[in-house]
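So, could you explain this one?
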Amino acid sequence: MPKITVKEFFGLIKLLRIDVFFFMSMFSSLLPNIALNQLIQDKYCMNHYSANESVCLRLESSASEYDSIQIGVFKETTTLKMYITIITTIPTIFTSLIMGYWIDAYPNHLRYMLGFASAANVVQNIMVIYQCIHFETDPYSLLYTYLFPILTGSGAIIYTGTFTYATRKTPAKYRAIRFTVLEIFFFATMPTANTLGGHLIASDFWSFGLLRNYVGVYIFSSLGAVLATIWAFVMLNDSDQTVDQQTVEKLDVNLNNVEDGGKEKEEKVGFKQIVADLLKPDNLILSCVRCVFKKRPNNGHWYIISTLMAGFIQNMTYLGEQNIVYQFNQRVYHWDAKQIGYYGSLVMIFFTLGAIVGPPLFIYKMKLHDSAVAIIGIVSVTYCFLVKGLILSPIVYVFMFFGSFAGVLLAIDRSILSRMVPTDEVGKLFAFNSAIGGIIPILSSLYYTKVFQATIDYNPGLVYSLAAIMFIHPLGNAIVLTRNKEKWDLALIAEKQKDNKQESELTNPLLVDPNANKEIESSQKQQA
């Protein structure tokens, strides 16, 4: 195996700078998930139901006489999580609309936006630690800890900013694999955060005499957020640069605002001017809306609208299960926090393997289009939901392996969207997608919470079976996109135009050399 030099190593880090940031920021956000679920449940169990510590510590495997407490705690917890989802997602709609224009107009601000978004997690963690130490406080007091992330729009900024940065740095033909790399980093955070979070909360390290080690989890989460903040400020200093000019020309991007070397021209303006510019109604809302709904050749706007709707349904179903998955695993499989972290990580490893193997296999080996790969991903995730809803036994995790290619879905969706518009509109399109995505957690939380609470006594798997039906529209949309890819895929259209031009030049020498006509006439006269 060839050795990697120090210079090559730092070159690799530079190439993956946004991926490393994405991993650290998502790790710090996901690490407290198990701790938060357990903290809410323990507060309800001990403070509201006045159960003793031994029952609350093993509530998921408690005797049948404690079923009423178990079901009550699970219902109260899922309800509070639903309210957390609502208050954290509604402001995202507003912040996302600001971001769309902001990122496109002032790309060098991106690293500061990403840095402050990660720093918001530190402030939130400090407030949660206070709630842990003062264990007697009402569980609904945890809603106040989300105030700072709400005001900074941290979640939306990290997602939209990261994928906009990657789009600006990557030619269209490589975006599927580039987004897959980002998704791999994202998938890597989930098993890492779940496993570490499950082990930390079960340990006595920094427990402060509490029922579990909530504080230790939030301290580790804060350390990850601090590292992500520093990384964004130091390493993401090229956010105002795009791919080289020759590559941009191939992507059919307007080059009027691009200088030599790919650095966009940006006039230096004052803080007041920037704020006024960002708060203009046309820049705040209309620019993103216009990007989606303006008429495009070959009815391209309808493909965009339909794809956004399909992604909306997919994300609502695919990501929404996080609202009840912890309580579902406790109720159905009787797992504790450590087991949930371990087996949950196992599933994410399956999806990560699918995300790693899928794009190279389907796109580069089998030469399938991105939309065809989306069909494979949708079928896989539908299968996973069906088996999880029908097989109420831990053996279901063996069958989940056959749905591993569900992991390609998120990356492929973003790649498809990025191919529907020129690069200088990607920020607005992703921002609009993030804005409507702000409604997703609300609807998915309402669906999963209410259906799970209504069926927890007799058929808790029904919530997954019904969710599988929702993938009908995304599947139909992917099929239509595959059959009509020459109408909406700008990169494919540009390649075909280039091939047609080259073919015309080969068949008609006059297009290549205007003097060819004189040479042909001269040759004919000599023959005569």
Observations:
- Residues 12-241+286-498 form a domain with the Growth Hormone; Chain: A; fold (CATH 1.20.1250.20).
